[in-house]
Amino acid sequence: MKTTATIGLLVVLAIGPAVFSCNTINPDTTVTTGKLRITFDNVAGASDLKLETGSYQNAAGEAFTITKFNYFVSNIRLRKANGSEYVVPQDSSYFLIQEEKPVSQMVTLSYIPVGDYIGLTFMIGVDSLRSLADISKRTGVLDPGLNDGMYWEWNSGYIFMKLEGKSALAPATQNNTFFYHVGGFGGGYDGKKTINNLRTATLSFNNDVAKVQTTSTPTVQLTTDALKVFNGQTKLSIAEHSSVMFDPYSTNIASNIAQMFSYTRIQTSL
Fold this sequence. Notes:
Blueprint: H1 3-15, E1 33-44, E2 47-48, E3 56-57, E4 63-80, E5 85-87, E6 94-98, E7 106-113, E8 115-124, H2 128-131, E9 151-152, E10 157-166, E11 177-183, E12 199-204, E13 210-212, E14 217-225, H3 228-231, E15 243-244, H4 250-257, E16 261-269
Parallel strand pairs: 1-14, 11-15
Antiparallel strand pairs: 1-2, 1-7, 3-4, 4-5, 4-6, 4-8, 4-10, 8-12, 8-13, 9-10, 10-11, 14-16
């Protein structure tokens, strides 16, 4: 994690992180609960991700810089040591991670039943149920007008992952910029089947345990590798695909996105 970013995150955390997710609801006041935090450290391979100034190279040998990197994380499930799962209430389980906003890279899950957790699963994107819900159910980061352009007005759908940048291999007609806006939940308002780019990531904490207690809060640190957008199951070439949005090729990028995440470590604080 970036040291300076971490300090800033903890300060803002104390002020009120709920603004970066949907409303938090206490599902059951009779259950003893605590909190669990998840941090997303965005990198590019072995290097820290730096917007505008960082220079990176993909598997195709193409050099580029990244100017924007956003993605939705939702539908979080926490796996206990006994094999059972705790499903975070859906209204409290939508987060938009933005590289340009360090505070968004730490999310806090409240009212988590006390216990030992050894892994988690989450969706990259916004599920069909919430995508089609009444606008009153889509607040906070799901508000189409307040989420940094992570919504297609013309396509009535959320952009699950947005990566933009510059490269000499991108067309001059695009001012040497490239962009990948990946979305699509497999349906639409007319009931027709469309591209489904929803993906899930399941991570183990290896031999570590996130102990949720009333008196201490574990922080699960994850790493998100933006290079996996290019170097995953499909090798993405900027020269061949400089702009991808709602088209069949986007399913290849979506599968790459699911490989971006890895577990780093757990820290516990009072």
